[in-house]
Amino acid sequence: MAISTREHLIDVARQLFSRKGVEATTMGDIANASERGRRTVYTYFRNKKEVYAAVLQSESDTLVRRLEAIVNSDEPVEERLREFLSVRLVQRREQNSAAVSLRALFKPDFRRMSRVRVLVRERAKCMLHELLAEGIDSGRFEASRCAMLEGFALDCMHAMDIAGADTESGGLALSADSMLDFIISDICRCKE
Asked: Domain spanning 1-46: which superfamily?
């Protein structure tokens, strides 16, 4: 599928912002790297701030689409919940994930990164609630345990976002997998 000129410019800008930094990247850099003229760049974006906003939106949309695909899959609700939490809590293990890209883009800029976190967090919160409600409605999850899990999971997601934890270090990825196994087994009514 061919990408649009606008999408191409956003992708090129994301790469430049990640490599050179947002402040050091110019509209001319984006035009040159995209092999488009400056006029084309200015046709789609009035200034670098607009390009930057489009990159933020694109990256957060990528994260949300991945979560939506999990929520809407045909897997059993327990598997979808586990995958959802895994992606949301330990997505940093994947070197090509949008979270890694975002972290590289905004490492020194916590204020800008927080805008993306808010976009993703609010949508993820709704999706988590939806998954838990489905598990309760189907009789697979215990409602009282889900209420505790929902608050705990949201707090963990928020903490991981703020910390920018690298799940490759210190065995955190293995700990997260064990934690997810414990959580899922705790809320399921049908213990296997």
From this structure: Homeodomain-like (1.10.10.60)
pTM: 0.71
CA atoms within 13 A on the CB side of 18: 16
pLDDT (tens place) for every residue of the chain, 192 residues total: 568 999 999 999 999 988 888 889 999 999 999 999 999 999 999 999 999 989 988 888 888 899 999 999 999 999 999 899 888 876 544 444 555 455 555 555 566 666 677 778 888 899 999 999 999 999 999 998 898 888 888 887 777 666 654 444 445 555 667 777 777 888 887 544
* 141: DSSP letter: B
Ranges in the chain annotated CATH 1.10.357: 59-187
Q: Which CATH class for the 59-187 domain?
A: mainly alpha
What is the C-alpha to C-alpha distance for residues 131 and 77, in angstroms, rounded to an integer?
7
Nearest to 158, CA basis, from 87, 89, 83, 76: 89
